[in-house]
Structures are given as C-alpha cells and as structure tokens.
Amino acid sequence: MAVPLTKPYKSAGLPWQTGPVRETDSVDFRRSRTIVPVLEVLPEAGSTNDVLSARAGDLPDLAVVVTANQTGGRGRLGRAWVTPPDTALAISVLLKPVGLPPESFGWFPLLGGLAMSRALGRFVPGGVQVKWPNDVLIDGQKVCGILTELLPGMSGLVIGAGVNLSQTREELPTDTSTSLAIAGADAVEADAVLAAYLIQLTTLYREFQAAGGDPLRSALRDEVAEACHTIGRAVRVQLPSGDDLLGTAVGIDESGRLIVESDAGRTAVAAGDVTHLRY
C-alpha cells in the first residue's frame, strides 16, 4: 500500500447532527450540494471523519459532511487540529470504490491532496503545491491537511480535509501555516471552496476507478509528481522506526512511495514525517 491509511478512532455514539445552519457556517452550500449525492452541514462537530465513519453504512459513495466549527479535529500521527470557529472548513468525503485492488487504496491521500491543490489554485495568486504525503501548501506554507481513514473490512474510506480560510496570522497554529486570506484570496466564500474541491475530487476519483486503480493508466502518479513540492528538495524523513533519513526526494514510485536519494542509495519511503530542508 502506497501511503498507509489510518484506522478510524472508535466513535462513542457520535450523533448524526442536523439542524439549522448559522450564517457563519457559510450560507447553505447551494452549489456544493449539486455535485454530490448527500451533503450534511453541521453547526459543530468533534470530528467530521468520526461522524461520517459512524454513518458510512447508511450513506452512498461520495457522501459529504462539512462544518466550520470542528472541535476535536486531528491530523496524521494523532496530532490535534484546532482552529477558531468559522475560520476554516473541515470536510469529510465517503468513498466506496468497487473492484479496486487493496494496494490502490494507498493512493487516496495523494489523490485528495492533488484535488485540493487544484481547487485552491483558483483562488490565490501564489503557487499551490502538494507536500508528500498529505499536506497542501501555498508558497511553501501549509493551508490544508489531508487525513484518510479506512473503514472496517476495507469497505471504503473517508478522506478528511481541513482547509484554512480566513485565519489571521495570530490565529494560526504555527509560523509555517497560512490561510487563503493571508495568501491573498479576496473574500472567498466557503461554498465556492468546497464546490471547487468536490469537483476536482470526484473527477480524479472517477478517473482512478475507471483505470482500475492503476496510477499509471489514470495518470495519477504523473499528476501528483508534477504538483509535489517535495520532489527535488532536500528532505529529512522521520521514519516510523524513529530513525531520520536525510537526502533528496527524487520521485514517487508506482506504489505512491517517496523515493529519497541519500549517501546510502535510494530508499522508497511508505510512511514518514517529511521536513523540507533549506541549506
């Protein structure tokens, strides 16, 4: 599997929240609702991934849950993802691919990142790139993280995305983060961002399915490699073993692994925390 997917946290009876949507939860997502079969807008959620995973058996392929107030979000490696209410979108999309080989599932984090990078490119003047395996950057700063989680029995998966919309510099968690507002986007509506993302995601997903999950026939590998800001850069990769790998990222292989060239030769990295180095 290309990029290891996270197994979802057990949800302790999370409610399927519905009800009135506040204006600050970005209107009614009218355009986005035309793109997918189900779109639930939550006034608040602990984790949209958890909510969607808990209801996955009752929902169709490409069902979506979104909120502008996520209180218990998380990223890779269990890191917390917290943002002030109504300044970001937490988006979770349910995928139920049919007939794809298990090894193809590892491409979905990269597919989600590519979709978001293309979507955000409509709104900002700077370059939008993918950082392997699951971050989206604007001019080298993180604007979005992707967390993809497998459902039990590999019956499907949930692609979660947290995208920063209007945070000020003081509201961001790190000095390497950014928001669309900081990057120069002018009064971007949440519905426009979500719709752009869903259009890109559904297009890439259908192409990948039509190619039987083959990243070469679908051109997904080439498209990810072209958008990947990591390739060609000096990197430090903290491996699951705790060891550090220093070298230059030179490509992505057919399994979605990052190829790092070091003094010891070439290493295919399936999982790791990547830092872009500046010398």
Tell me the name of the CATH class of the largest domain: Alpha Beta
* E-strand count: 14
Order of the strands making up the biggest sheet = 1-2-5-9-8-7-6
Number of domains: 2
Instruction: Note the beta-strand portion.
Output: 25-35%
**Main beta-sheet annotation:** 7 strands, mixed
Provide a descriptive summary of the structure in words.
About 8% of the residues have low confidence. 47% of the residues are buried. A hairpin with a 5-residue loop joins strand 11 and strand 12. Helices cover 19% and strands 27% of the residues. The protein has a seven-stranded mixed β-sheet with strand order 1-2-5-9-8-7-6, with helices on both faces. The longest helix is centred in the last third of the chain and has 21 residues. The chain has two domains: 201 residues, 2-Layer Sandwich (BirA Bifunctional Protein, domain 2); 46 residues, Roll (SH3 type barrels), CATH 2.30.30. By secondary structure, it is an alpha+beta fold.
Short description:
The chain is α+β, with helices and mostly antiparallel strands. Helices cover 19% and strands 27% of the residues. It contains 5 helices and 14 strands.
Offer a few descriptive terms.
alpha+beta, BirA Bifunctional Protein, domain 2, SH3 type barrels, 2 domains, seven-stranded mixed sheet, five-stranded antiparallel sheet
